[in-house]
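A.,

Following up on our hallway conversation. C-alpha cells first:
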C-alpha cells in the first residue's frame, strides 16, 4: 500500500506536499515544503481543481478567470475571495499563503449523526429476517454512541429495494421516531427499530437494504430526563458496559441480543475479503522452510 507524507506550515499546504510526494517522489514518499522556493514550485505544479477545498464548480469558475494553478489562486485579491468564496474559501486562501487558518484537531469531535447500514447478501422478503438485520445495525449504532459518550434522541429507519433491478417492484421508505428520552442502550434501539420495520414493511417486495441513523445526538451527561422514564439508565449502563467489555475482549457479537439472531442470510457476501494480516495471528503469512 503506497504511503506518502507531506510537511508544511499549514494543513492545506501539507495536503499539497503529500500529493506532490505521492506523484513526484515515489521513491521516498516524503516531501517537505521547508523553503519559500519549494512552496512556490508546488503551488505552480498543482492544478486548481486538485486543491483541497475547491470543488468542481469553483474550479470551473476560477479557470474561466484564468486561474489555472494554486499559485494563480494566491495572486487573487483577498477581498474577491472573501466575497465570492465565503469564509471557507478565505481560510483556504490564507492557508495557501502560509498563514494557518484551519485548526489542528488532536481528537476527532463527536459525530452529529451516526448511520449503520449494509446491503443484504441476498434479496429478502421475510419481515423477521429483516428485523434481525436491523437489530444488528442498531447494536452497531449503540456501540458507536457509547464509544463517543453520546446518546441519540431520534432515530431514522429506512427500508428499500434495489433500484437497479428494473424488473422488481420498487419501494424506498424511511420512518423517523422521536425517542421519549435520549439513549445509547442497544435494547431500546432494537425495540424502536423493530417497531419501525413493522410500520415500513410491505409484502410483495424484494428488499435489498435496511439501516438505522441516529440523530439529535447529545453528550451522555446532558440527557434531559422525563417524568416517566422508559428505561432504568443505571442498570442499562452497567449491562452495556459489561456487553462492550466482553465483545471487545472476545470478539464482536460474542454476546448479543436474541433479536439479532444467528442467521447469516442477510449478511453481505465477503468471499473475497482481505485477510487481517496485522491484527490476527491466524492470518499471518507463513513461509515454508
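Then the amino acids I'd put at each of the 289 positions:
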Amino acid at each position: 500500500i503506497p504511503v506518502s507524507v507531506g510537511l508544511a506550515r499549514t494543513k492545506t499546504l501539507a495536503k499539497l506536499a503529500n500529493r506532490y510526494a505521492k506523484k513526484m517522489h515515489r521513491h521516498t514518499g516524503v516531501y517537505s515544503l521547508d523553503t519559500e522556493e519549494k512552496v512556490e514550485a508546488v503551488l505552480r505544479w498543482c492544478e486548481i481543481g486538485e486543491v483541497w477545498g475547491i470543488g468542481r464548480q469553483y474550479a470551473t469558475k476560477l479557470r474561466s478567470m484564468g486561474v489555472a494553478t494554486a499559485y494563480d489562486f494566491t495572486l487573487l485579491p483577498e477581498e474577491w475571495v472573501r466575497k465570492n468564496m465565503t469564509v471557507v474559501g478565505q481560510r483556504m486562501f490564507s492557508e495557501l499563503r502560509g498563514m494557518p487558518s484551519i485548526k489542528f484537531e488532536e481528537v476527532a469531535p463527536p459525530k452529529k449523526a451516526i448511520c449503520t447500514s449494509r446491503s443484504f447478501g441476498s434479496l429478502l422478503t421475510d419481515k423477521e429476517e429483516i428485523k434481525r438485520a436491523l437489530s444488528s445495525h442498531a447494536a452497531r449504532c449503540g456501540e458507536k454512541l457509547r464509544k463517543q459518550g453520546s446518546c441519540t434522541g431520534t432515530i431514522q429507519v429506512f427500508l428499500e429495494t434495489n433500484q437497479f433491478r428494473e424488473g422488481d417492484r420498487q419501494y424506498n421508505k424511511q420512518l423517523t421516531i422521536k425517542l421519549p428520552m435520549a439513549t445509547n442502550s442497544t435494547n431500546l434501539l432494537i425495540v424502536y427499530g423493530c417497531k419501525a420495520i413493522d410500520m415500513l414493511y410491505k409484502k410483495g417486495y424484494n428488499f435489498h437494504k435496511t439501516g438505522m441513523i441516529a440523530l439529535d445526538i447529545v453528550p451522555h451527561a446532558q440527557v434531559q430526563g422525563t417524568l416517566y422514564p422508559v428505561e432504568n439508565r443505571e442498570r442499562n449502563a452497567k449491562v452495556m458496559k459489561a456487553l462492550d467489555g466482553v465483545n471487545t475482549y472476545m470478539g464482536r457479537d460474542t454476546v448479543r441480543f436474541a433479536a439479532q439472531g444467528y442467521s447469516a442470510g442477510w449478511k453481505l457476501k465477503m468471499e473475497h475479503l482481505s485477510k487481517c494480516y496485522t491484527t490476527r495471528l491466524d492470518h499471518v503469512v507463513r513461509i515454508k522452510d
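The longest helix spans residues 127-147. Curious whether your intuition agrees with the design.

B.
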